[in-house]
Amino acid sequence: MDNPHEAAARDAIAKAITTVVVLLVSLIAMNALVILIMSDGVFVYGLDDPYIHLALAENLLQGTYGVNPGEHSSPSSSILWPLLLAPFSWSPWAPLIINTVAALALVVVFAKIGVLTLRDERYPIDPLELTFLVAALVVATNLIGLVFVGMEHVVQLLFVSLIAWGLLRILHGSDVPVWLPLVIAMSPGWRFENVVISVAAVLFLFFLGKTRAALAGLGGIVLLFLAFTGLMVSLGLSPVPTSVLMKLSAGGDHTVPLGDSILWSLYSMTTVPGIILITLMIFLAYSAAVTQDRVVRWLAVFSGLALLGHVVSGKYGWLNRYEIYMVGFGLIISLHLAFRLFLLPGFGAPTGRRRRLGMLAILLVLTTWSGPYLMSLGQIPLASRNIYLQQWQIQRFLKDYHQGPVAVNDLGLVSYRYDPYVLDLWGLASSEAAYLRRTSSSADWMRHLVARHGVELVVIYDAWFEEVPEEWERLGVLLMETYRVSAAEDNVSFYATSIESAPRLRAQLERFSATLPQRARLELSQAHVDP
Hints:
- The chain has helices spanning 4-38, 50-60, 81-85, 94-118, 127-140, 143-149, 153-171, 180-190, 195-207, 211-234, 242-247, 258-268, 272-290, 294-313, 324-343, 351-369, 371-377, 380-402, 431-439, 444-452, 502-513; strands at residues 406-408, 422-424, 457-460, 473-480, 491-496, 520-524.
- By secondary structure, the chain is mainly alpha-helical.
């Protein structure tokens, strides 16, 4: 016969999952509809970056690891995400659908974690209490916003949440789940920074004497990175993706001065996510100090060290996506320890009342901390409209009017489903361009690259370059007349690389300018006339 508490737990899980899934799907559908309305019936992600992965994924099917057919490059910040996208890369909806499925899986994982957290042999789990906890975690991890970013962050969050769930099951006396070493090994494959959490999990298992599971997880991580770096080297590329190297510094160089790194770490501690992580670290340190339970102590210690890794060297923001994997992991572990150490048996009667008050306090904290993510939900359609008014219009010009090689500095939509050569002057898809940009003292490197690839049209942000070759003729500027959320700049300049090509390109832009939507305007420059 079933334990009544077990039956109540199953009922609570079913009700919580059903309720939160309905709310989540409704909000995703509503945001997608608003994006379609605001972008003239075109669905666009809130960043240009998802289209880099789509471009890479579509070329993977043709045997090229890169954004240009036949030319290898490593612009992706993820090992596994482009592989997952590849079979579906023909559809720009693929990231949204995959992310939605991953978000629904996260709701189930959050519910499972919630049951572990709220479990008390004296009281059945309250479905309403569990529902509020799961919903609070959905908001506190910016799950809806991550879906519309269109990148790998939802799957990244899913894997670190699975790791947290596995560790909490061990905390409750279960054997190591058979799937946990595999999840630990695969997690850094979705985003490289996940390796911090994976290593923390390996150390936790090792110190508990779960040596076989720890070695399996560590061995999987090593094999994943060896396979990837081996592939990159065999293709003549750097073992570390260009995108990762460039993100290590604000200026795009591959080295960061120690002083700048320290200043960045200090600044990050003043941001809301930085304050959240520091608060969680303090709580985990306190938990490790007061507990008599060896397993709890090691979990708190290694989880806190993982959080410290991001506080010291991690990035924040850009639609609240960089830090969210660590915020989610830290919240899950900290919430569980808060209930286990301070709200469950052994802390005085009446325990039921104490639980309810504690739960209310935790939900209030979660709601407060979720403020930036709640506010950012309203920016989702605005971010997508930015990309629609700028990158999507540039791609439309290239496909419908230019249909030739182009040089850009913002890679993404311009390279997805576009067959002519795309030269990335910023260097995300070209290690040569990245090297020349940071080492050359003049604009000669730009002149040589565009000549080598037969590029007559250049579309760049002027603010990103100190100078351009003097013979380039500026044809016009595409202006975005709306609140800037996700676009790097408000305006994009079009250049002809030679006087001979300028009249033809100018005529293309003149025809294109008449088709622009509201809030996008093309200011054409006067034609150059020789004296």
